[in-house]
Specification:
Radius of gyration: 20 Å
Number of strands: 4
Distance between the termini: 54 Å
């Protein structure tokens, strides 16, 4: 067995990466189950309170969908793109990706949770992160 592992390590990196994935199964199962608790619809009382807080920071409810929307304006394209990059890194960590559109210095963002077909705690958490990043730019 050790000889086989030595041969795999000294050959191309492809077999080695396959072998390591067999020995160390991906952790995304635990991550997904942890995040799934945030994927449930908000209760009506929680929803009213949280959406009211988000409205105060410029978020709007989307009419034909169970989603929230915000448009942000930056000084330059570089600033808008930098903002999007920071949000993208957090979105990867959260495994929750916004729908967005960018033209020059304008970024439009829609948040909804496709897993539950509507607004969830994950959207609220992402919206608050987006607001925090936008204020720091």
């Amino acid at each position: 067995m050790f000889g086989l592992m030595f041969i795999l390590r000294t050959s191309s990196s492809r077999p080695c990466s396959r072998l390591s994935s067999l020995r160390n199964p991906p952790l995304h199962r635990n991550y997904s189950s942890k995040m799934s608790s945030d994927s449930h619809w908000l209760s009506p009382a929680d929803r009213d309170q949280l959406v009211m807080e988000l409205r105060a920071t410029g978020w709007m409810e989307v009419e034909d969908r169970d989603a929230i929307f915000k448009e942000l304006h930056f000084k330059t394209f570089n600033q808008a793109f930098g903002f999007m990059s920071r949000v993208a890194l957090e979105a990867e960590k959260m495994n929750h990706h916004p729908e967005w559109f960018n033209v020059y210095n304008k970024v439009q963002i829609t948040l909804t949770t496709h897993d539950c077909g509507g607004l969830s705690k994950r959207d609220v958490k992402m919206a608050k992160f987006i607001d925090k990043i936008a204020l720091s730019m």
